[in-house]
């Protein structure tokens, strides 16, 4: 859950997940619809599918006990080098390095690394620095050749765990991208960027990719009190989640030449002019470099249009489905509008 998501956002999701699926076995056996509903709103839904696949692997190959060996952790679905290092150092106090956005920012500033961290050679150097730090913590705690299997530090104080957590917290709370709190930073005297007044320059992430605008039209199609929804196919963005029928209006689209693109599209889809076409909402959100505008309309029809895939659901049934964030808002607005029109 913490991959690419802030702690304050994750906490209520984590608490709800642990109430519903408190064990690895429970997560492994859960219905996919259930895990998507528990994850609804967190985004990057491949993560929850990988989480379940990892739980199933742990049950099958490790007797239901989470492995402590770095290579075995790394082999689990959805876990890369950073996540495996974080798990092994924080949970098992092993001298495994970590390198996320926060740690990259701390290391580039403290060590004065001016090259782009995204470049292969620079990224490798940062991993080496992170490893050198956690190995020094391991030696301080008494680890090393005599520390047992996997190089674990099995006794207190647990410097490996504390070191990596400190690096992440330093980047999240003190060494921030903008307006870092250098006056209270415990690493200030070690920091090359602070000494040389180069903090705004580091990390050097290069030129940002320009944003791309995209426009979609969505229809909440209502017939006799029920709404048409469809499930996104597996292997696509937001796969397995539910949404209202929607289409992208690409640059140069013939529909854009019409004075009312939504009405023109509705006629094309339904075969006839809709009995009712009401503006529902215009939502703006971002996914990576895309700046998306979603214009939504409530469409009233007397008969279900033929050839439109999906399921017809009563307002109360929509709560059982896992929607993308934008379409969850549309579901709430559509239900409110339908109830108010009665």
Supply the key terms.
13 helices; Endonuclease Iii, domain 2; globular; Nucleoside Triphosphate Pyrophosphohydrolase; 342 residues; alpha+beta; 2 domains; single chain
Just give the CATH class of the largest domain. Alpha Beta
Low-confidence stretches: 144-149
The overall strand count is 7
Strand content: 5-15%
Distance between the termini: 41 Å
Estimate nothing, just give the exact number of structural domains: 2
Helix content: 40-55%
Query: What is the overall shape?
Result: globular
Radius of gyration: 25 Å
Structural class, judged by helices and strands? alpha+beta
Which superfamily, in CATH terms, is the homologous superfamily of the largest domain? Answer: Nucleoside Triphosphate Pyrophosphohydrolase
Question: Residue-averaged pLDDT, rounded?
Answer: 89
Number of helices: 13
String of helices and strands: HHHHHHHHHHEEEEHEEEHH
CATH architectural arrangement of the largest domain: Alpha-Beta Complex
Look up the CATH topology of the largest domain: Nucleoside Triphosphate Pyrophosphohydrolase
SSE topology sketch:
Elements: H1 7-20, H2 24-29, H3 32-39, H4 46-62, H5 70-74, H6 81-92, H7 101-110, H8 120-140, H9 159-174, H10 192-195, E1 212-223, E2 226-231, E3 242-243, E4 246-248, H11 261-270, E5 276-287, E6 290-300, E7 311-313, H12 315-318, H13 325-341
Parallel strand pairs: 1-6
Antiparallel strand pairs: 1-2, 1-4, 2-3, 2-7, 5-6
């Amino acid at each position: 859950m913490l991959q690419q998501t802030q702690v304050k956002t994750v906490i209520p999701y984590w608490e709800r997940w642990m109430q519903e699926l408190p064990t690895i076995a429970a997560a492994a056996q859960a219905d996919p619809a259930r895990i998507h509903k528990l994850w609804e709103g967190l985004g990057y839904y491949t993560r929850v599918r990988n989480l379940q696949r990892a739980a199933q692997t742990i049950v099958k190959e490790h007797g239901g006990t989470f492995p402590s060996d770095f290579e075995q952790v790394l082999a689990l679905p959805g876990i890369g080098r950073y996540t495996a290092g974080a798990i092994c150092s924080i949970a098992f106090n092993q001298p495994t390095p970590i390198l996320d956005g926060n740690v990259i920012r701390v290391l580039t500033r403290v060590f004065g690394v001016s090259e782009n961290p995204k470049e292969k050679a620079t990224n490798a150097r940062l991993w080496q620095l992170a490893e050198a730090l956690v190995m020094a913590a391991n030696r301080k705690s008494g680890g090393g050749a005599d520390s047992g299997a996997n190089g674990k530090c099995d006794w207190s104080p647990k410097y490996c765990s504390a070191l990596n957590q400190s690096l992440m917290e330093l980047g999240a709370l003190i060494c921030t991208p903008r307006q870092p709190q250098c006056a209270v930073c415990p690493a200030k005297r070690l920091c090359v960027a602070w000494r040389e007044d180069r903090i705004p320059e580091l990390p050097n992430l290069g030129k940002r990719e320009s944003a791309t605008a995209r426009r979609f039209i969505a229809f909440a199609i209502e017939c006799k009190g029920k709404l048409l929804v469809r499930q996104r196919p597996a292997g696509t963005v937001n796969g397995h989640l539910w949404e209202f029928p929607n289409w992208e209006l690409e640059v140069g689209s013939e529909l854009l030449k019409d004075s009312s693109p939504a009405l023109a599209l509705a006629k094309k889809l339904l075969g006839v002019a809709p009995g009712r076409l009401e503006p529902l909402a215009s939502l703006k959100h971002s996914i990576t470099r895309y700046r998306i505008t979603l214009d939504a309309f409530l469409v009233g029809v007397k008969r279900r249009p033929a050839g439109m895939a999906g399921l017809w659901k009563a307002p109360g049934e929509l709560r059982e489905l896992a929607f993308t964030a934008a379409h969850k808002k549309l579901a709430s607005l559509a239900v409110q509008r339908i109830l108010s029109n009665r």
